[in-house]
Specification:
Layout: H1 2-17, H2 22-34, E1 43-50, E2 55-62, H3 63-74, H4 78-86, E3 92-95, H5 98-105, H6 111-120, H7 123-132, E4 137-139, H8 146-155, E5 161-165, E6 171-175, H9 176-180
Parallel strand pairs: 1-3
Antiparallel strand pairs: 1-2, 4-6, 5-6
Length: 182
């Protein structure tokens, strides 16, 4: 009986999260880095290992910040780090440099923080709205907190997300994969 309950629990939790498989996430990573090359504020879903603590974390980070972390880690210029990123074939990175890890950690959210956020946001509705509208833009009032959580959850749902700064201080997230699929 316990096995059946555990099986149902894990099956339901997979349905609730509705995340895509690793191959799709990998393909979106490669597409985000290479196809949307000029977009510095595109979000990349990565796993990084902090070699100082041996902890591995999944984060959704803006490409420009990942490039900066790579520059710190390898003591190279931003241009060299950009080239290094373009040649990466994996979503997994390892870092030891404290400055690089500081950049990466600002994008990390615990499961509790993510679950608390999801209580107040209907991600399924947002994903449905994105997939049924021609141009999708999410205007965010609190850019220092919500943008990264939205990007994390939407990227895990097979969407390529970019942050844009608009006129009159209005900022928000664009779904770039929606533009690709027109």
């Amino acid at each position: 009986m316990k096995k059946i309950i555990l099986f149902l629990f894990f099956s339901l939790s997979n349905l609730i999260y509705s995340q895509v498989d690793e191959k799709t996430l990998h393909n979106n990573f490669i597409t985000s880095v290479n196809t949307w090359n000029g977009e510095e504020h595109i979000y990349l879903l990565i796993n990084f290992k902090d070699l100082n603590s041996s902890l591995t974390k999944e984060i959704c980070i803006q490409k420009s910040d990942l490039r900066d972390a790579l520059a710190y880690e390898h003591t190279i210029s931003e241009n060299e780090a950009h080239t290094k990123l373009e040649n990466y074939k994996s979503r997994y990175f390892e870092f030891k440099n404290i400055d690089a890890i500081t950049i990466l950690n600002k994008y990390y959210y615990s499961e509790n923080e993510i679950n608390e956020f999801k209580k107040n946001v209907n991600i399924d509705k947002i994903v449905n709205d994105i997939k049924t509208k021609k141009n999708w833009f999410l205007d965010l009032e609190d850019m220092n907190f919500k943008e990264n959580l939205y990007a994390l959850l939407l990227t895990k749902r097979d969407l390529i997300i970019n942050i844009t700064f608009q006129c009159f201080g209005q900022s928000g997230l664009w779904c770039l994969s929606c533009l690709e699929n027109k």
